[in-house]
C-alpha cells in the first residue's frame, strides 16, 4: 500500500477486489450463455459458437502470464470487455465499473484486443484483393445491380472523435466536429474489400483516395482489370469503381452527374439512377457497421492511434460475422425498405475538373444504360 500526501493509493481498489464474485463477466455473462437472443444482443455475435471460435483464434495473442503478484484477467474476459466496448460505445469508466476493473485497464485491453483482432482476422477476412477478387465483384454488380464493369462501391465517412491534443484544426471537418476518415471499397455482399483509416477529417474523399496505399498499389499507372466491352457492345470500356459527388470523375471511378444537369437530360437521369442504386451497397454497409458496433454512434474518446485500431477491428469483425452468418444480399426490389443509419457522416461534394477521357468513359456507360 502506498501513500501520496493525504491520498491513499492501493494496488487494487476494494471494489475491484470483488470482481470474481460481483463483476459483470462472472455473473451476467455466464447466465447469458443459456439465452440465445440476449447473448446476441450483449455480445453482438449471432451465437455462442461464433464467440467461442473468435476466442480460440485470439487466445495465443491476448493471454497473459500468471505471476507471483497477481492472476491476470482471463482471455475470455478480455475479449468480452472489448466487444462490450465496441457494441455499446460506453466510456472506459462505465465499462470499468461494470466489470470491476480499473479504467486504465479497460483502455489497455481495448487497444490490445483490437490490434490483435485486426492482425488475426485481416489476412483471411480482409485480404489484399487479387484479380479473382475483382472478377467476382464485377460479376456480382453486373448480375444483381445491372452495372457491368463495376468492381466495387467506394465511399468515405467521418468517424467522430474527441479533439486530439495539440492537433489544431487538422481533424476538424466541415460538419463542425473532429473526425478521422474511414475510406472503404465494398463488394456485393456488404463486406469491406479495402479500407483506409486515419486521414484528417478536413481532407476530401478524392485527396484521401489518391494518397492511399491502395491507390498507389492498384490504380496509379495500372488498371484493376483489363478493359472489356459492355454487354452488347464492341468497344472496350475500363473497369470502374462507383462513388458519390465526393470523388472526382476518373476513367477508373464513375460519379453521378450534378443534379442540375441530370434534371434537364433523361439519359443522364437514367445513368444517375443506375449508379446510385448500385452505390447504395456501400451506404448500407456503413449502416450495418454502425448498427452492430455502436461505438460509431458517439465521439470516440481515445487517442488517434487507438481510434484507428478500433475502426480497423470493427471492420474486420464486420467481415468475419458477415462471412460466418451468411451474406443475404439486398435486391433492387427491396432496396427502399432498408435505409442505412446515418451514424457516419459522408463527405461534401468536390468540383475538381476531370479529364476528357473520364468524360468519354462515363458517356459510354450513359449510352449503354439508355439503349
TrEMBL record:
What parts of the sequence cross the membrane?
Answer: none
GO cellular-component term (any): nucleus
Cell compartments where the protein resides:
Nucleus
Stated name of the protein: DDE Tnp4 domain-containing protein
| Cofactor(s) named in the record | a divalent metal cation
Q: Which residues form the DDE Tnp4 domain?
A: 154-319
Q: Which Pfam families match?
A: DDE_Tnp_4
* The entry's keywords: Hydrolase, Metal-binding, Nuclease, Nucleus
Give this protein's Gene Ontology molecular function annotations. hydrolase activity; metal ion binding; nuclease activity
Q: Which family does it belong to?
A: Belongs to the HARBI1 family.
